[in-house]
Specification:
Elements lengths: L8 H22 L5 H6 L6 H12 L2 H14 L5 H16 L1 H6 L6 H7 L2 H34 L5 H48 L5 H5 L20 H6 L1 H11 L1 H8 L4 H14 L3 H15 L9 H9 L4 H33 L8 H22 L13 H21 L5 H23 L7 H22 L6 H4 L21 H19 L1
Helix pairs in contact: 1-9, 1-17, 3-9, 3-13, 3-14, 4-15, 5-12, 5-14, 5-23, 7-8, 8-9, 8-17, 8-18, 8-20, 9-15, 9-17, 9-18, 12-19, 13-17, 14-23, 17-18, 19-20, 19-21, 20-21
Length: 525
Amino acid sequence: MSPDFPLATLDLAIIVGYFAVVGIIGYIVAQRIESGEDLFLAGRTLAWGTIGFSLFASNISSTTLIGLAGDAYRTGIAVSNYEWMAGVVLVFIAVFFVPFFIRSGLTTIPEYLEKRFDARSRKYFSGLTIFTSVIIDTAGGIYAGTVVLRTFFPELPFVPTALALAIVAGVYTAAGGLAAVVYTDILQAIILLVGSTFIAGITFAEFDFSWAKATAQLPENHLSLMRPMDAEGLPWLGTLIGVPILGFYYWGLNQYIVQRILGGRDLNHARWGAMLGGFLKLLPLFIMVLPGAFALQLYPDLGNPDQVFPTLVTDLLPVGVVGIVMAGLIAAIMSTIDSTLNSASTLITIDFIKPRRENLSPEETGRVGRIATIVLMLLAAAWAPMIRYFPGLWSYIQSVLSYLVPPVVAIFLLGVFWPRTNGNGAFATLIGGHALSLTVFVLSQMGVIELHFTIIAGILTALCIGMLVVTSLTLGDAPPEEKVDDLTWANRVFETGPAMAWHKNYRVHAAAVLGLTAVMLVVFW
């Protein structure tokens, strides 16, 4: 089978069946939606398993499946540093940040900035998040999903395919809100894990399940997580100082990810869900990255690394399994689109519309959220085809985020850990930090600064932290102690309650995730 040949009837039936199940879930959940809190946070009833699987599924996009295998083929397994680092970051967030988010009753992450600082920082960060969610995440997901589908089905027209993806994801997201998103995410996560495990197993079978055969002709350091500074791909210093910064923003401050944690039924479920998500993020190295690395021996002359995943699927997998993997691929596409649509509509409704119309009833809030979802869907669908005419733009997405996130990371870190941080300092750092980032970005594009973007992210974050300290000390007094109660680690209030069994203790979960990560690092250093 090749990408130019139609799928077998069984494979097509599996894909159609997947869409049918998603539609049924969306319809059932939509019948239970009565208020804005139901739409945006699933009524704050999400259990830890739902949160964990949804975190994993929303993060794994079609570009992740294609990109991880392609980069592993081209440069080695260091690309998986973004994956396992998520486990470390989620442990950090679950221990130090989730308690403040849950206690504050947040619906959006920018709300924390208003409670801790003032409305200026909230509006600024919320606007930035909406822009990146629609123009980068949602439109990028639609675009990438369309490109991937056309890899397998070349006869598909680009614009109608992109519009169809947007409409399907937009309709069930507007109808069922976060609950529809997370419950379909459970299905999507299972399909992704099963499909990727099939690919990994069958790829390894090509080498008779022999590690020695699978690695015999791979280049030096191809299976090393820590790459030299001058090597192609992710350098070791970027892994240590840049990837944690990007990970902290993505997993702790990105609305479309953290919304699942905010929807937890209580602090324990929120923490347990984050830990489960962290554990699941250890798996991509084995089921998504290593198959791409091993493929270098199976297909040494493959011209385009991004063809590794489609080639493995169409060349090695039997009928039926191809349908499962294709359903997983479509699941990844839909999960990214629906998650970003729901989070962006939440931000617009809660951070911009509701403050101006404080008398909105719960039902009216839900209706406004649905309208916002449909409008955002149309905007993203309209922009997605335009990406074809900017061939270099989207190759810089991760690098652009390295310039956007340092000021935000700085104000959240010091906002929680340093009570002296004030509103003037926070807002000045957002403005000044992004001005600094823009300057460094221009110099990098001109070739004046030649550093990997992850290293730049680490340096910019350190400079923004310094900027925040200076501006907080010089632009106003310390915030009143009563304002920062329960919002900073120094003023935390420890919860007391009955002793918890060891297997329910989040500290045990954290130690397990960090321990497994350490073992993996030792093996693949």
